[in-house]
Amino acid sequence: MKTKYYLFEKICQIMADASGPRHTLMTIVKLVADHLHIDVCSVYMITPPDGDLVLRASAGLRLESIDTITMTAHEGLTGLVLEKGAPLFVKKPADHPRYKYFESSGEERFSTYLGIPLRQHRRNLGALVFQTVDPDALSEKDIPFFSTIAGQIAALASYGGLVKNTPPDGKDDAASTPSRPRDFVPPPHKAERNLLRGIPASPGIGEGQAHYLVRSIGFDQIRPEYTDSPGNEISRLETVAQQLRDEIRNMTENIDDLSFQDAAIFESHLMMLSDPSFRKDIVEGIRKGYTAAYALKQTVARHIQRFMKIDDPYLRERAKDIEDIGRQVLARLLGDTPDQSTTLTADTILIASDISPLELIAVRQKRLKGLALAGGGRTSHAAILAKSFEIPLVIGLSDILDRVQEGDHLILDGNSGLVFRSPSEDIINEYKQIRGEKKRLSRRLHTLKDKPPVTKDGHRLSLNANIGLLSDTPLVQLYGAQDIGLYRTEFPFLIRSTFPTEDEQVDIYEKILAGVDGRTVTIRTLDLGGDKFLSYFDAGKEQNPYLGWRSIRVSLERDDIFRPQIRAILRVSGNHRVRLMFPMICSLGESKKILRILEEEKQALADRKIAFDPHLPIGAMVEVPGAVKILPALLTCFDFVSIGTNDLIQYMLAVDRNNPKVASLYNPLHPAVLLTVQEAISACKQAGKPISVCGEAAGTPKCAYLFMAMGCDALSMTPSNVPAIKRLIRNSRWDKARADLAAVLEMSDEDEIGLYLNAALNGL
Ligand code: PEP
Ligand code: MG
């Protein structure tokens, strides 16, 4: 009896100290199994969307079977327990007709089975299952006692969030952190008749009827046709282009909540319509005798082809803009303008192979609850617009056009990329709850905007933004980032057809600086190569571009590119808060060379009496593991350091950051990565130089928590990640984070680190 009381007491204590439902559950099953000498103690939970039973915790079954053993709620002895809603004791379970064997569990040696339903408010949540090798170790008499334990576990499951979904442990996805409401993750193994998986491109959850975007004539239907009156065709083209320009202007002027970056999208459309080379190409085609429509088709195809040759995915997607605008001109040439006034009479999820920003504007209304595209791009302008209009968007749903009919009831999840066709009541309710949670969370996060990122016990650091385009600048203010920790200057270079001159660069940087309202901007010099190439700069083909002629290596060999950029940055430092940073530093020799060039250019500006900040802080990006090893020496050349984890991880772990085949190996929680970041931070502390982290990992909760504990001065991230990371910091204690870091740095397995951090961050 004493044993039983001890056990209850201990379970209560574990629940009170709960470090996260998953961890708590594992601790309880282990305790019960150990204490009562039971070979197997397992918890199966009913899991959405299909209500299947999934093994969530077990002491005794193989660890790898957790989360992989799944059965429908009507399968096996455990299914029978749920059907009956009552405990079930079976001797020789393998002989029972409902017995179901799972190879991965290693369970055939057991001679008793006791299953107890986990119930809360008369609802089945799952089952607690005991198995023993000894046929006499369990009997029906044990049922009342085990039912009490089941009651405790049911309470934990119900209130600890295990019922809806337990996120997979070990991965640093935001879904598993407390700083965001959970996302819906269906079991991966299921036959998914009514589930479509795409790529999330604008967050949020939408529910409504499927409605196909009707678009009649596309370029593929335009055949070569000739005209006898090219003059007429040219003037038709001019009229139509002017008409479209007016329409775009009208539209943008009449949308009062059109943000700065959205306006920039339409501005780029207007520019394209007025681009003399675009017009000249079409007119040349017409002069050859083709109709305006066919000449337009040819011109659009040529321009798209040019863009598609560019390696940068952002710029490749600009080809879409050309197609969009071309299609708009075509529609007007053919008198086939889409009906802009479609009024949706019910909540709607719009389906299309793709959508242009103009089409999106035309259909945007209260009833539009989501967009599901067979194609699309994450950084397409339509995706940017959808985000700023807060319309959930899922792209890459390659089979949606075959699987969804007009009028089907859909739920679209822009956070996970899932689309449910004819969802069950359970799924509908589940999403209702998630939507409520998300609303509450974003309201709470917004209240943090003007609050400092400081831990409960007073440790403070800066949360900064990474930007690349002028259109990113409003986000800095929106999400409450303190400064700009990384401005990637490649973007303004990438979207041009020649290198911008020094003066043009001054203009570009001035605009960025004006857009961020007095914040300090860390401007990084060009980081070309790897996956970023300029159409007008032939760097030659390389076997291993990431290990080749890239970044500072290019700059140091090309004075004609490097020096004007340095001069331009120096010039804007004269009247703005600027820091200058160099990418991919890995040797003292190149650092000294950089300093020499910088001094020469400062002198040149001083000779010309051009103002600049003589004390402009100079920084090195540490993203090559070798640089960390010689950091104390490098620090003699630099005032500050920023760690680029995106590259550091790929170089440390030999995992290409852009290769989906090895994406699962790209893990920022790998102990080697963490130890290296810690080493770099310690070296900077020792030298009294500020250090930040600006790779993507800085915007993920687990890494941000560890980097903070390591003592870095700032984290720089995609602006929209700032509120969640700020919340995490404000809910943390520095001393506890230090203790967690010490524990993590003792571990040599990234999965173990992930699990540990799941527990440590849960509830923060
Ligand atoms: C990095 O490598 O972490 C980084 C911030 O630079 P980029 O992603 O531009 O290579
Ligand atoms: Mg980098």
Molecular structure report:
It contains 27 helices and 22 strands. The chain is α/β, with parallel strands linked by helices and 764 residues long. Strand 10, helix 10 and strand 11 form a beta-alpha-beta unit. The relative contact order is 0.08. About 3% of the residues have low confidence.
Annotation keywords:
single chain; 764 residues; alpha/beta; 15% strand; globular; binds phosphoenolpyruvate; binds magnesium ion
Blueprint (SSEs and pairs):
Elements: H1 2-16, H2 21-36, E1 40-47, E2 52-59, E3 70-71, H3 76-84, E4 88-91, E5 112-120, E6 123-132, H4 143-159, E7 195-197, E8 199-202, E9 205-212, H5 230-254, H6 260-274, H7 276-287, H8 292-308, H9 313-333, E10 348-352, H10 357-363, E11 368-373, H11 381-388, E12 393-395, H12 400-403, E13 409-413, E14 418-421, H13 425-446, E15 462-467, H14 473-478, E16 484-488, H15 490-494, H16 502-515, E17 521-524, H17 552-557, H18 559-573, E18 578-582, H19 588-607, E19 618-622, H20 625-629, H21 631-634, E20 640-643, H22 645-653, H23 671-687, E21 691-693, H24 701-710, E22 714-717, H25 722-731, H26 734-745, H27 750-761
Parallel strand pairs: 9-10, 10-11, 11-12, 15-16, 15-22, 16-17, 17-18, 18-19, 19-20, 20-21, 21-22
Antiparallel strand pairs: 1-2, 1-6, 2-3, 4-5, 5-6, 7-14, 8-12, 9-13, 13-14
Helix pairs in contact: 1-2, 1-4, 5-6, 5-9, 7-8, 8-9, 16-18, 18-19, 24-25, 24-26
The chain binds phosphoenolpyruvate (PEP) and magnesium ion.
Phosphoenolpyruvate is lined by residues 486, 488, 527, 623, 644-647, 694-695.
